[in-house]
Amino acid sequence: MQTKILRVNPRNPSISQIRQAAKKIRSGNVVAFPTETVYGLGANALDSKSVRKIFAAKGRPSDNPLIVHIFDIAEIGILADNIPNMAYDLMERFWPGPLTLVLKKSKIVPKIVTGGLDTVAIRMPKNKIAQAIIREASVPVAAPSANVAGRPSPTMAKHVREDLAGKISLIIDGGPTKIGIESTVVDLSKKTPMLLRPGSVTLEQLQEIVGAVKIHPIIFGKKTNTIHRSPGMKYRHYSPSAKIILVEGTKAKQKISQLLHQYKSQGMRVGILSMEKSHTKSDLTRFIGSNPDTIAANLFKSFREFDEKKIDIILAQGISQKGLGLGIMNRLGKAAYKKIRA
Ligand code: AMP
Ligand code: MG
């Protein structure tokens, strides 16, 4: 399959380009497009055959559910049942934006979208291109991240091309995504809301609106025997081919220098993922920023850069889990081959 890449102006998308993408979705095909979080791979959420193409292109396990993207808040009533008031409070505050709500699914949502669950994840994106495509498609659009399963989520059209060229027919290139990590996911299908995936809408912001929020133990890297409320969480994610070693604690810096020398002396190519301006020399040191917004925006891109430079080991120092830090540390933790406390 030929993969066409269409450059679209993110501030003022041309309607004829948007219609090309929407037409593909309406006719049962998949299209990759930017959202404010990462690039998504979208298909008509109400059509099982279309949605199956997403799973096939990504090589995604069938029990890992998709997020349904909407343009108009009214669609929520079609996709979900028993919507609690809390959901409306959160929508009012954070939509359009990087917050996904898990609600009881309605009959209309095919099981393939929800990985067999009786709940559906819904989000209204803020990115203008995403909004216009969903509006013109005039169907809800199921869209997971547009990467091959297990690879880091794409934050640029070229990442989508690296993973999916030949497997999908259209990539909409709207430049780099703003946020860089996937949406916050909160489950509202039970009495107390539960954070299933941290993101740029922070735990603290959610608590301000709804009060108590439980945190799924897996976010802190704990192994649980209980049934996963979010099946996607059990899969190793976001990983570059290089092995990430995540070092935390007061002696993290010293430990990183020691590991750098140790692995170098074993003949390995060692990279450093740096979140402080003072760099340590390595085969590839990538400074990805010192504030959480910049770190999130550059994180997945840097994973791919380490792979391009054939790095074997990536040493990364942990950051505070406050605010967006929780989402960043969650992605680093899931990508990590090993975590060390020093
Ligand atoms: P992705 O868009 O690739 O980041 O994947 C979407 C993620 O949203 C999944 O891996 C799940 O963690 C989460 N998700 C989607 N639908 C549900 C649902 N019904 N219940 C819980 N989590 C969900
Ligand atoms: Mg994903």
Automatic annotation (TrEMBL):
<dbReference type="InterPro" id="IPR006070">
    <property type="entry name" value="Sua5-like_dom"/>
</dbReference>
<comment type="function">
    <text>Required for the formation of a threonylcarbamoyl group on adenosine at position 37 (t(6)A37) in tRNAs that read codons beginning with adenine.</text>
</comment>
<feature type="binding site">
    <location>
        <position position="123"/>
    </location>
    <ligand>
        <name>L-threonine</name>
    </ligand>
</feature>
<dbReference type="Pfam" id="PF01300">
    <property type="entry name" value="Sua5_yciO_yrdC"/>
</dbReference>
<feature type="binding site">
    <location>
        <position position="238"/>
    </location>
    <ligand>
        <name>ATP</name>
    </ligand>
</feature>
<dbReference type="InterPro" id="IPR005145">
    <property type="entry name" value="Sua5_C"/>
</dbReference>
<feature type="binding site">
    <location>
        <position position="145"/>
    </location>
    <ligand>
        <name>ATP</name>
    </ligand>
</feature>
<dbReference type="GO" id="GO:0005737">
    <property type="term" value="C:cytoplasm"/>
</dbReference>
<dbReference type="InterPro" id="IPR010923">
    <property type="entry name" value="T(6)A37_SUA5"/>
</dbReference>
<dbReference type="Pfam" id="PF03481">
    <property type="entry name" value="Sua5_C"/>
</dbReference>
<comment type="similarity">
    <text>Belongs to the SUA5 family.</text>
</comment>
<feature type="binding site">
    <location>
        <position position="153"/>
    </location>
    <ligand>
        <name>ATP</name>
    </ligand>
</feature>
<protein>
    <recommendedName>
        <fullName>Threonylcarbamoyl-AMP synthase</fullName>
        <ecNumber>2.7.7.87</ecNumber>
    </recommendedName>
</protein>
<dbReference type="GO" id="GO:0003725">
    <property type="term" value="F:double-stranded RNA binding"/>
</dbReference>
<dbReference type="InterPro" id="IPR017945">
    <property type="entry name" value="DHBP_synth_RibB-like_a/b_dom"/>
</dbReference>
<feature type="binding site">
    <location>
        <position position="64"/>
    </location>
    <ligand>
        <name>ATP</name>
    </ligand>
</feature>
<keyword id="KW-0808">Transferase</keyword>
<feature type="binding site">
    <location>
        <position position="143"/>
    </location>
    <ligand>
        <name>L-threonine</name>
    </ligand>
</feature>
<feature type="binding site">
    <location>
        <position position="197"/>
    </location>
    <ligand>
        <name>ATP</name>
    </ligand>
</feature>
<keyword id="KW-0548">Nucleotidyltransferase</keyword>
<feature type="binding site">
    <location>
        <position position="183"/>
    </location>
    <ligand>
        <name>L-threonine</name>
    </ligand>
</feature>
<feature type="binding site">
    <location>
        <position position="37"/>
    </location>
    <ligand>
        <name>L-threonine</name>
    </ligand>
</feature>
<keyword id="KW-0819">tRNA processing</keyword>
<dbReference type="GO" id="GO:0000049">
    <property type="term" value="F:tRNA binding"/>
</dbReference>
<feature type="binding site">
    <location>
        <position position="69"/>
    </location>
    <ligand>
        <name>L-threonine</name>
    </ligand>
</feature>
<keyword id="KW-0547">Nucleotide-binding</keyword>
<feature type="binding site">
    <location>
        <position position="60"/>
    </location>
    <ligand>
        <name>ATP</name>
    </ligand>
</feature>
<dbReference type="GO" id="GO:0008033">
    <property type="term" value="P:tRNA processing"/>
</dbReference>
<feature type="binding site">
    <location>
        <position position="119"/>
    </location>
    <ligand>
        <name>ATP</name>
    </ligand>
</feature>
<dbReference type="InterPro" id="IPR050156">
    <property type="entry name" value="TC-AMP_synthase_SUA5"/>
</dbReference>
<keyword id="KW-0963">Cytoplasm</keyword>
<dbReference type="InterPro" id="IPR038385">
    <property type="entry name" value="Sua5/YwlC_C"/>
</dbReference>
<keyword id="KW-0067">ATP-binding</keyword>
<dbReference type="GO" id="GO:0005524">
    <property type="term" value="F:ATP binding"/>
</dbReference>
<feature type="domain" description="YrdC-like">
    <location>
        <begin position="15"/>
        <end position="201"/>
    </location>
</feature>
<dbReference type="GO" id="GO:0061710">
    <property type="term" value="F:L-threonylcarbamoyladenylate synthase"/>
</dbReference>
<dbReference type="GO" id="GO:0006450">
    <property type="term" value="P:regulation of translational fidelity"/>
</dbReference>
